[in-house]
């Protein structure tokens, strides 16, 4: 937390009656297992639990007060506030915390690339600021408030990732964040079960624009089909564009793509400078992510050389294009964190640069009625791009293998995939592994990695 506060201040913020006994709080917790002495415990609900039932254990663990939206059968013996909706109250408290933060906050959303862009943005900001960023995948209506509440007095800048599974979620979280800079990486057919259509995705990602400070900066992908719609939505706000062609404000020249990274030169339309960058993240899509960060950082007044230094200091993390060593000298590219059609196409473009390219896929989830067609399209695209072999598991991925044709192999489960690859994989092959979280392809990565402790 940025500051200590009293329970009576929380009551005033939420429009509640003052507590019978006031106490000073030094933090916020929603999990009795992680409570620190002095915390205010906020009782959230989940599919299989009701946080109100844990009020007494929270107080026993060191919480000085509890915020509930339902009084349990045995009333907790300690300072208490009762509201209509603890989740909304949690967000309001997080917004209060954000208002006390004086440094720049960059918010990032998009169908693909937002986590890598977050990592790149944080590494760039770290060159000049003590920076906080979203940890892991805490990018939803609970994770974003948690990120804001974790800001400390030593932090000078922050990067907040915003995800969504349906309309309105980004509007909610972005309006809590109140970013000085908002980045939209792209919009594609992901989570269509929640959004209904690509148009729904575009509309929802655009909610970030509405919540960027009036004097702030909106960073948009000039190559995305939704660009014109987003640009119009930004109105009179300052817009900086990025893309792989010279029509964007920030664009790349002299692209040299490798399986383990990319070299390129950043140019700024109307400016005489250019800045070479060596990026440890492979693929044109990651060059676009780096350009988005470059645009945001320039908008915050950072120099091109400092931005490049930050980009070059960044390295892939597990599940997102991280290169590992496998048996027989194989190179394993762990891109297993998640998948949608756009990100698999980008992965295929990367793996196709290798002379012996194996693509290992699990099902893509949440694609709605077009799921089978989307999986077929991925198989055809992999074949067109020259992928040597495709190995897949999952009911939908049968269509991927069928479309790929010769050298396509469908297997019933992850264990069979691992056994097949260990038996059939040529020495010195490059293997890229990807699938939605529900496919659990990270388990395949661990089984194939030569040193499991890496």
Automatic annotation (TrEMBL):
It is found in: Cytoplasm. One of its GO terms (molecular function) is UDP-N-acetylmuramoyl-tripeptide-D-alanyl-D-alanine ligase activity. InterPro entries: Mur-like_cat_sf, Mur_ligase_C, Mur_ligase_C_dom_sf, Mur_ligase_cen, Mur_ligase_N, MurCDEF_CellWall_CoF430Synth, MurE/MurF_N, UDP-N-AcMur_synth. Transmembrane segments: none annotated. Gene3D superfamilies: Mur ligase, C-terminal domain, Mur-like, catalytic domain, MurE/MurF, N-terminal domain. Residues 319-437 form the Mur ligase C-terminal domain. It holds the Pfam family Mur_ligase_M. Its main location: cytoplasm. Pathway: Cell wall biogenesis; peptidoglycan biosynthesis. Keywords: ATP-binding, Cell cycle, Cell division, Cell shape, Cell wall biogenesis/degradation, Cytoplasm, Ligase, Nucleotide-binding, Peptidoglycan synthesis. Residues 108-297 form the Mur ligase central domain. ATP binds at residues 110-116. Signal peptide: none annotated. Its EC number is 6.3.2.10. It is an enzyme of class 6 (ligase). Residues 26-71 form the Mur ligase N-terminal catalytic domain. It catalyses: D-alanyl-D-alanine + UDP-N-acetyl-alpha-D-muramoyl-L-alanyl-gamma-D-glutamyl-meso-2,6-diaminopimelate + ATP = UDP-N-acetyl-alpha-D-muramoyl-L-alanyl-gamma-D-glutamyl-meso-2,6-diaminopimeloyl-D-alanyl-D-alanine + ADP + phosphate + H(+). HAMAP family: MurF. Involved in cell wall formation. Catalyzes the final step in the synthesis of UDP-N-acetylmuramoyl-pentapeptide, the precursor of murein. Belongs to the MurCDEF family. MurF subfamily. This is UDP-N-acetylmuramoyl-tripeptide--D-alanyl-D-alanine ligase. It comes from Oceanobacter antarcticus. The lineage of its organism: Bacteria, Pseudomonadati, Pseudomonadota, Gammaproteobacteria, Oceanospirillales.
């Amino acid at each position: 937390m940025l500051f200590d506060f009293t329970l009576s201040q929380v009551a005033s913020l939420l429009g509640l009656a003052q507590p019978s006994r006031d106490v000073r709080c030094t933090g916020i917790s929603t999990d009795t297992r992680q409570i620190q002495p002095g915390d205010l415990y906020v009782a959230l609900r989940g599919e299989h639990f009701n946080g109100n039932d844990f009020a007494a254990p929270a107080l026993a663990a060191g919480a000085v007060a509890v915020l509930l939206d339902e009084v349990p059968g045995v009333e907790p013996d300690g300072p208490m506030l009762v509201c209509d909706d603890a989740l909304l109250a949690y967000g309001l408290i997080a917004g209060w915390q954000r208002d006390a933060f004086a440094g720049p906050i960059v918010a990032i959303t998009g169908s693909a690339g937002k986590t890598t862009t977050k990592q790149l943005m944080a590494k760039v900001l770290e060159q000049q600021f003590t920076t906080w960023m979203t940890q892991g995948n805490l990018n939803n209506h609970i994770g974003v408030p948690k990120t804001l509440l974790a800001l400390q007095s030593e932090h000078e800048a922050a990067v907040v990732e915003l995800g969504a599974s349906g309309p309105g979620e980004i509007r909610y979280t972005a309006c809590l964040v109140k970013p000085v800079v908002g980045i939209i990486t792209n919009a594609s057919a992901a989570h269509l079960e929640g959004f209904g259509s690509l148009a729904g995705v575009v509309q929802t990602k655009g909610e970030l624009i509405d919540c960027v400070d009036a004097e702030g900066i909106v960073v948009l992908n000039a190559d995305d089909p939704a660009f014109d719609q987003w640009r119009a939505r930004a109105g009179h706000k300052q817009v900086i564009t990025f893309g792989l062609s010279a029509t964007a404000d920030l664009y790349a020249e002299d692209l040299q793509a490798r399986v383990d990274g990319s070299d390129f030169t950043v140019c700024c339309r109307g400016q005489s400078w250019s800045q070479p960058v060596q990026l440890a993240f492979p693929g044109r899509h990651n060059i676009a992510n780096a350009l988005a960060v470059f645009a945001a950082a320039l908008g915050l007044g950072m120099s091109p050389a400092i931005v490049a230094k930050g980009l070059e200091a960044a390295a892939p993390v597990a599940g997102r294009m991280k290169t590992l060593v496998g048996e027989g000298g194989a190179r394993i590219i762990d891109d297993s964190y998640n998948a949608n059609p756009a990100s698999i196409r980008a992965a295929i473009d990367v793996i196709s640069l290798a002379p012996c390219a194996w693509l290992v896929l699990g099902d893509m989830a949440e694609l709605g009625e077009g799921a089978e067609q989307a999986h077929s399209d991925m198989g055809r695209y992999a074949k067109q791009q020259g992928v040597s072999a495709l190995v897949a598991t999952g009911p939908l991925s049968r269509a991927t293998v069928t479309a790929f044709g010769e050298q396509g192999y469908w297997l019933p489960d992850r264990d069979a995939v691992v056994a097949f690859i260990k038996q059939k994989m040529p020495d010195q092959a490059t293997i890229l592994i990807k699938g939605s979280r529900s496919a659990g392809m990270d388990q395949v990565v661990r089984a194939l990695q030569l040193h499991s402790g890496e």
